[in-house]
Amino acid sequence: MGTTGNTAGIEIGLPADIDEVTAAWMTAALRTSGAIGADAEVSALRNEPYVAGGLLSLLYRSTIESDDPGAPNTVIVKFPTDVPQLRNMADAVAVYGREVAFYRDIAPRSTIRMPTVHAAMSAEDASNSCIVMEDLARLRQPDRSAGMTWDDAVRGARALAAFHAGWQGSAELDELMKTFMSIGSPLNRAVLPGVAAAGWPAAKVHRGHTLSADVVALGDMWVDALPRMLDQMELRPTLCHEDWRADNMFFDSDDNVVMIDPQLVGVCNGAFDLAYFISQSTEREMLAGRHGELVAEYLSVMAENGHDLDPDTFFFDTRVAVGLVLMYGFASYPDYEALPSEGKAMTDKILRRAAEAIEDFDSLAALRTLLA
Q1: What do you get for the CA distance between the two ends of the chain, in Å?
Q2: Those residues with Cβ within 8 angstroms of residue 367's Cβ, 6 or more apart along the chain or in another chain
Q3: Which homologous superfamily does the CATH classification assign to the domain defined by 10-134?
């Protein structure tokens, strides 16, 4: 559901950077996707940096003039980041190849709603990639600062389940893991302890006074519990977005969820995506203790699609996953002092939301059960 009939690939040429995204090149991309007619042309193109750029990507908005009245007025063009440290991190987990593969191969046969993609290509040696996609600026987005409303959180949980249901227990997952890494991969098992070793002590230095005894206890045992948490997240697998949060979410005029940024898509237990969504995109005051209702909304859609997951087992998996996603709460603290004030505020908010979710799901008790 995220592409037109055809998606232009490397056959139209991979531009090195935005300067090579010309009217002629865009003509080829939009003709291939069917966004303009076979004889139509893009007569003029204006490329400007897109201010809402992502952490791992360079984004541009291209304004289009065409003799085809049905041509899009604007599109978004996406290249890899040019920040060496971020690029190295992205390349280590094949972020750009995953995104291109998802848009080309997975989105067209998935229930997930995504922007129309006109072109998606990457170099064989993974040195570069380029994506041209629908500009979603006209759509409604959740308030990133205030967090999701209850109704939007329900929509988000239900859309997530519809996506997961298409891949739950699929025979294709083993093959898909060649492109979309398993959450329990050797890379994650090797790298994540180091992330915690640097991030958790720094988080306690800066915000330890705001954390409850249960959250501190869970953080202190996080590295020891990590292998078992990853083992649990490999059970009952599906294809997960792994970045299902308000920042990547839009709503169309019918309040259907439209998601972007499938850069981290991988194979894991669907509870991971749901726990991450609740932990990163909702506020405790809004949820008002209705965490179980969101889980039930997810499970009802899974059941509607033929997957009757055991509620107690899935809720336990979600509690474990809430403990695992504490990593997003502490990951930025080693660089805390260098962050601008807004960066510090966001880092603190991510940790606070993660900590509150740990308390509300009683994740400490779940991890102790897992390790018993």
Answers
A1: 44
A2: 218, 221, 225, 228, 229, 320, 323
A3: Phosphorylase Kinase; domain 1 (3.30.200.20)
Q: pLDDT digit string (tens) for 78-107?
A: 999 998 888 998 898 899 999 999 999 999
Closest Cα partner for 348 from 367, 366, 323, 328?
Answer: 328
Backbone angles phi, psi at 171, to 5 degrees: -65, -15
Q: Is the dihedral of CA 117, 123, 129, 132 positive or negative?
A: negative
Given the DSSP bridges, would you call strands 117-122 and 3-8 parallel, antiparallel or unpaired?
parallel
Distance (Å, whole) CA 209 – CA 204: 8
What does the alpha-carbon distance between residue 217 and residue 355 come to, in Å, rounded to a whole number?
A: 11
Tell me the mean pLDDT in the region 198-207: 97
Give me the chain's average pLDDT, please: 95
Q: What is the CATH number of domain 150-371?
A: 3.90.1200.10
The domain ranges of the chain are 10-134, 150-371
287 vs 233: CA distance, rounded Å: 24
Residue with more model confidence, 234 or 340:
234
The side-by-side arrangement of strands in the sheet containing 3-8 is 3-8, 117-122, 129-134, 74-80, 57-66, 42-49
For residues 257 and 156, the answer to whether their CB atoms sit within 8 Å is yes
Q: CA-CA distance, 18 to 199, in Å (whole number)?
A: 35
Buried b (16+ CB within 10 A) or exposed e, 47-60: eeebeeeeebbbbb
Three-class SS of residue 1?
coil
DSSP state of 19: G
**Dist CA 219 CA 224 (whole Å):** 10
Specify whether the CB–CB gap between 289 and 360 falls below 8 A.
Answer: yes
State the pLDDT at residue 205: 97
Cα–Cα distance for residue pair 344/45, rounded to 1 Å: 38
Identify whether the C-beta of residue 219 lies closer than 8 Å to the C-beta of residue 205.
no
Matching residue, tokens 């997960």 = 240
Q: How far is CA 293 from CA 278, 298, 344, in A?
A: 12, 9, 32
Question: Side chain identity at 306, as an amino acid letter?
Answer: G
Q: How far apart are CA 36 and CA 15, in angstroms?
A: 20
Q: Cβ(279)–Cβ(353) under 8 Å?
A: yes
Task: Tell whether the model's pLDDT for residue 1 goes beyond 50.
Answer: no
